[in-house]
Design a protein that fits this description.
- This protein has a 6-stranded mixed sheet with strand order 1-2-6-5-3-4.
- The chain is built from 5 helices and 6 strands, in the order ββαβαβαβαβα.
- The protein is an alpha/beta fold and 113 residues long.
- The mean pLDDT is 93.
- It has a single domain (2-104), classed as Rhodanese-like domain (Oxidized Rhodanese, domain 1).
- Helix content is 32%, strand content 19%.
- It has helices at 14-22, 35-38, 54-57, 75-86, 98-104; strands spanning 2-4, 10-12, 27-31, 47-48, 66-70, 92-95.
Length: 113
């Protein structure tokens, strides 16, 4: 479920995230993709916060909640995790494989309204 990559970024796999969401665990899910990418769909319940806006909006995210960042493949969300960890956020996780891994696992996306 949880682990870390070779750069020390904490990660969660798709099965682990799906399990936490199914159990209605208290967590924040943040999509750091661009507006154009998000138009194709998001993981239900995600907050859309494009990576380029994270430095401006980071302080709006709670430090006491597990926050899982995702993007298309996991690269930008890993950058988001590194940025937040440098700001003192301990409970930040990257979705390993991003939304590609999510959809390849057969899980649905929600449409943005």
């Amino acid at each position: 479920m949880f682990g870390s990559n070779m750069f020390g970024i904490k990660e969660i796999d798709v099965a682990g995230l799906h399990s936490l969401l199914s159990e209605k665990k208290n967590l924040a899910l943040v999509d750091v993709r661009s507006d154009n990418e998000v138009a194709y769909g998001v993981i239900e319940g995600a907050l859309h916060l494009p990576l380029h806006l994270l430095p401006i909006k980071a302080d709006e995210l709670a430090k006491d909640v597990h926050t899982i960042f995702y993007c298309r493949s996991g690269a930008r969300s890993a950058q988001a995790c590194a940025f937040m960890a440098a700001k003192g956020y301990d409970n930040v996780y990257n979705l390993r494989g991003g939304i590609i891994a999510w959809t390849q696992s057969g899980l649905a996306l929600a449409k943005v309204v």
